[in-house]
Specification:
Layout: E1 9-14, H1 24-32, E2 35-43, H2 53-72, E3 78-82, H3 84-95, E4 99-103, H4 108-123, E5 127-131, H5 153-160, H6 202-207, H7 212-226, H8 230-233, H9 246-250, H10 256-269, H11 273-298, H12 320-328, H13 334-346, H14 351-364, H15 369-379, H16 385-396, H17 411-418, H18 423-428, H19 437-440, H20 448-453, H21 469-483
Parallel strand pairs: 1-2, 1-4, 2-3, 4-5
Helix pairs in contact: 3-4, 5-11, 10-11, 11-16, 13-14, 14-16, 15-16
Biased composition (Basic and acidic residues): 232-242
Keywords: Chromophore, FAD, Flavoprotein, Lyase
Site (Electron transfer via tryptophanyl radical): 316, 369, 392
Length: 488
């Protein structure tokens, strides 16, 4: 005879897994529980990396989408705010829940907190079930031949590839257990206070559709219309060449197993050499995300300290006004300024431009990479601690598999190569729109009569460069000379 359905009540704790498809914690809870109480807790636990304003905006809309999806299936999302351990213990007591299900996070503070929460719940007789929804392979299950964490991407990627065929996403549950009675609705979404107090988010609203449905649309758009151009177009900020899946992956509206499975299915149905190559290029980028999370797990101190300890002695500059000019897109270097304005307006920046802007801050301006990481953390909708840490340390030359320090991106040649017709620069820097292409990436070198004809007054309606690119590059290399002989 089939087993009788359980009458136990369980709590499903949503975190960075705001989806119903390929959600192993949800699947396990549906299998085991007779009643299910889905909950999201806006945590007030001490954490040096609390979500920034752009991430909070995204979270508000993603939670609204998740609640709507749950309500379509006869359930709803219970919203709380406070310390996660206290909220879960209180909720278990009031609901009679005997188990809590969640998907693991891998940030240093979250790992510590989860261990403490699990220990506290078990002391109260509540069973805990955690699963992996965020990564293809968990960090404690993937080492090099010496049994140590990978610190270079290429061998990490080579060792990961044979494991991909066995990775399969889980289906969305066909039905959800009912919600236990007598628990109210918790807080309203508005009471969480995630939206900005004043209206600066119009650009975000126009650009993004947070939630599982929006994530699915982005992925379909990539596979059906843009994948074939991906290898070349992904470096072009003037084109829709990237997937823009990063915020959806960060909030777990889409899981990497889903992306992998749909990409492989698409490639199987379209076996052209171009699509195979494009698919491999995109999979490689998904693996970089994986690599970032593995690094952060094994080297948790790298959110604030360089993996290459020589850089603890680097002569960084303390220049608050120059930092503010970079943040506001007022450096006088068009590609950097365009990227910083795109970031402020849309909560996102093209990856090629991120590298240029990061190189300019840490090398030409000589400002500590941590300042840039903090600004990106507050302004990016895809602010992900692992990716942000890897990206900044890679560009600054002090992380795992880092670009050599002497690789200093030239923002003029980068703009000329990857925005050859100036569409990206003109979109975000309309004050330069009348400049000919020849001078658009370097207006300070344009003849006086060309600037006058374009109605550009450097230092007035567009800033003069805050540093000379050639001289600042030489200073950066001088700083490298000071530390490169220090023992790592």
């Amino acid at each position: 005879m089939p087993a009788s359905p359980s009458t136990d009540t369980a709590i499903l704790w949503f975190r960075q897994d705001l989806r119903l498809t390929d959600n192993p914690a949800l699947q396990a809870a549906c299998r085991d529980a007779g009643k299910l109480l889905p909950v999201y807790i806006l945590e007030t636990d001490p954490d040096p990396w609390t979500p920034g304003a752009a991430s909070r905006w995204w979270l508000h809309h993603s939670l609204a989408a998740l609640d709507a999806a749950l309500r379509e299936r006869g359930s709803r999302l219970h919203l709380l705010q406070g310390r996660a351990d206290e909220c879960l213990e209180t909720l278990a007591a009031t609901s009679g829940a005997t188990a809590v299900y969640w998907n693991r996070r891998f940030e240093p503070a979250a790992l510590t907190r989860d261990r403490d929460i699990e220990a506290g719940l078990k002391q109260r007789g509540i069973t805990c079930h955690s699963s992996n929804a965020a990564l293809l392979v968990e960090p404690w299950d993937h080492f090099n031949q010496q049994g140590k964490p990978y610190r270079v991407f290429t061998p990490f990627w080579r060792s990961l590839q044979p494991r991909l065929e066995a990775i399969v996403p889980q289906r969305r549950p066909s039905a959800l257990p009912g919600v236990p009675r007598g628990n109210g609705h918790g807080l309203s979404l508005e009471e969480l206070g995630l939206l900005p107090e004043y209206d600066w988010d119009a650009g975000l609203r126009n650009e993004w559709q947070p939630g599982e449905a929006g994530a699915g649309k982005r992925l379909r758009s990539l596979l059906e219309t843009r994948l074939i151009q991906y290898p070349e177009a992904r470096d072009r900020p003037d084109d829709e060449g990237t997937s823009r899946l990063s915020p959806h992956l960060h909030f777990g509206e889409l899981g990497p197993r889903q992306v992998l499975a749909q990409l492989m299915q698409h490639r199987a149905g379209h076996r052209s050499a171009g699509l195979v190559r494009a698919g491999e290029q995109f999979l490689r980028q998904l693996a970089w995300r994986e690599f970032a999370h593995h690094l952060l797990y094994h080297f948790p101190e790298t959110t604030d300290k360089p993996l290459d300890r020589r850089f603890e002695h680097f002569p960084w500059s303390n220049a608050p006004e120059t930092l503010r000019a970079w943040q506001r897109g007022r450096t006088g270097i068009p590609l950097v300024d365009a990227g910083m304005r795109e970031l402020w307006h849309t909560g996102w920046m093209h990856n090629r431009v991120r590298m240029v802007a990061a190189s300019y801050l840490s090398k030409n301006l000589g400002i500590h990479w941590r300042e840039g990481a903090r600004w990106f953390w507050d302004t990016l909708v895809d602010a992900d601690l692992a990716n942000n840490t890897l990206g900044w340390q890679w560009t600054a030359g002090c992380g795992a598999d880092a670009a050599p320090f002497f690789r200093i991106f030239n923002p003029v040649t980068q703009a000329q190569k990857f925005d050859p017709h100036g569409r990206y620069l003109r979109r975000w820097l309309p004050e330069l729109a009348r400049l000919p292409d020849k001078w658009l990436a370097r207006p300070w070198e344009a003849p006086t009569e060309v600037l006058a004809e374009a109605d550009i007054r450097l230092g007035d309606n567009y800033p003069a460069p805050v540093v000379d690119l050639k001289a600042s590059r030489a200073r950066a290399l001088g700083g490298w000379d000071e530390i490169k002989g220090i023992s790592r």
